[in-house]
Design goal:
The chain has helices at 29-35, 69-78, 105-111, 138-144, 147-167, 192-218, 251-266, 274-280, 311-323; strands spanning 2-4, 7-15, 19-24, 54-59, 84-86, 96-100, 124-135, 170-176, 179-184, 224-238, 245-249, 270-273, 284-292, 301-309, 325-328, 331-338, 347-351, 356-362, 365-370, 403-405, 412-414, 420-422, 451-452, 454-457, 460-464. The chain has 466 residues and is of the alpha+beta class. Helix 5 packs antiparallel against helix 6 (192-218).
């Protein structure tokens, strides 16, 4: 630390540049670096949105204040380690040595979080369950089935297996040829081993159900083999910009792939490693075990063949799915609750972190929509227990035939199609609202209602907010 004309200064050093420069008290590392002529990548203007200014603290971590606000939020989404900081947000209180992690324009494109649908994750060591599957005699199918039918069958399998994996909390990491790799536990789920086993069992069950159809339609026998392993891997987002996927690298991934291959010689369909088996031993039905030497290994290891879950474990998995999200027909679904709790003509408002959903039981079934009029995003209905402002108009009940009247300006929508049946009938001719003329013309934004996909399964209502 030093002072210059009454201003306290920190001395910063950047690697691999071997450049040192001063940073004023309260100044960000990014600002000081740019002032010193250091080519620090930055794409969002210093508001902690892109992460391209990320740096690795080598020395002086005690002079780096804890993350706050936007930096803390972004670091949580990307899984930053403690020493990874955003230069635009870090304002050191003393000398710091750091390494730039984004060095050129291509690095900046790869690292930037701007315009991504999902945040990418930097590499991080995590314990995960790795799922590998492979279609038996896929080369033979390629020779016997027409190209169109082969791709249809392959995509049908990937779609179904992917939904099963995601419904069990996994992430499909890779589909190449006839092989699939998935990860369980990348989000820290402690039940990852059991979820991976259940996903494997459910995938095999679906294959068994699909066999008669495949045999009749394509004159082929559909069978798969699955290998599971659990251990520590480097987990992060990789891929070309715009086509990134969450994946894992390391020995645990290679071993899982070779466990899947071991099914061929063993004549089995599902084999798991001892590290994974030890974590689910009391929750699965063990059919057999074998000692094998995997490809590339010098020593034999023990693998276990699993035939199913115990009754208690099956109930545990069922409750887990019931209380959480699910995936079906290419959509993510959220459980609303028992259908019987919403009587005909009744509604239920469900509060999520990102929106409120209204589910209505009409004469034709269950329908769902966002609890916000598309006109000015004002709520159709009050939340349970919400204090009602005296100037707020009273709610208008939904008609049994599905007509929804907004209480604010009396626009009328069809909850089945979202179509506008009547548009803001209580606005004045100039588009203003009585007693709220200061807001001006609000007749614009003639937007239909957007219904949400809604279904009933096993007595529960599920809504997709995709």
């Amino acid at each position: 630390m030093k002072r210059r004309e009454g201003i306290r200064m920190s001395r910063l050093e950047s690697r691999p540049d071997n450049v040192s420069f001063d940073c004023e008290d309260g100044e960000s590392v990014l600002s000081a670096a740019l002032r010193a002529g250091l080519p620090m990548a930055n794409a969002c203007g210093g508001i902690a949105k892109c992460s391209t200014c990320r740096i690795w603290i080598l020395n002086g971590g005690e002079n780096c204040p804890e993350r706050e606000g936007a930096e803390s939020d972004l670091a949580g989404k990307l899984g930053f380690a403690a020493r990874i900081r955003l230069a635009c947000q870090l304002r050191p209180s003393g000398d710091v040595t750091f390494r730039r992690l984004v060095l050129d324009e291509m690095d900046a494109v790869v690292a930037s979080q701007l315009y991504r649908k999902q945040p990418s994750q930097t590499g991080e060591l995590k314990k995960v369950a790795v799922f590998f599957s492979d279609i038996v005699d896929f080369t033979g199918h390629c020779e016997e089935i027409t190209p169109y039918d082969l791709m249809f069958l392959l995509n049908r399998y990937f779609a179904q297996a992917g939904e099963i994996i995601e419904a069990n909390g996994g992430h499909v990491s890779l589909c190449i040829g006839d092989g699939m790799m998935a990860l369980f536990g990348a989000d820290g789920d402690k039940d990852a081993p059991l979820c991976a086993v259940n996903a494997a069992l459910e995938t095999l069950e679906w294959i068994d159900r699909a066999k008669p159809f495949v045999s009749t339609m394509f004159n082929a026998d559909l069978e798969i083999r699955i290998g599971l392993h659990y251990g520590e891997a480097i987990v992060g987002t990789v891929g070309c910009p715009g086509a990134e996927r969450l994946t894992a690298v390391g020995p645990v991934v290679n071993l899982a792939s070779r466990i899947e291959e071991a099914n061929k010689e063993a004549g089995t369909r599902l084999l798991v490693s001892k590290p994974l088996f030890d974590l689910v031993r009391d929750k699965v039905i063990e059919k057999d075990f074998l000692r094998v030497r995997l490809r590339g290994a010098s020593e034999r290891i023990t693998l276990y063949e699993i035939g199913g879950l115990t009754e208690e474990a099956a109930r545990e998995v069922s409750v887990r799915k019931l209380n959480g999200a699910s995936r079906y027909a290419g959509r993510h679904w959220r459980r609303i609750g028992p259908a019987a709790e919403i009587p005909p003509g009744g509604k239920r408002i469900v509060e999520f972190d990102d929106c409120d959903i209204v589910v209505f039981h009409s004469d034709e079934g269950y329908f769902a929509f966002n609890n916000a009029c598309p006109h000015l995003k004002l709520p159709f209905f009050d939340r349970a227990g919400e204090t009602v402002h005296p100037l707020r108009p009273p709610e208008i009940a939904i008609k049994r035939d599905g007509r929804l009247h907004c209480r604010w300006h009396h626009a009328c929508f069809d909850i089945r199609s979202g179509a506008i049946l009547n548009w803001c009938t209580n606005l004045r001719a100039d588009g203003t609202t009585a007693e709220h003329e200061e807001i001006g013309d609000v007749s614009k934004n003639r937007t239909p209602l957007q219904p949400l996909a809604c279904r009933v399964q096993d007595g529960d209502v599920w809504v997709s907010v995709d």
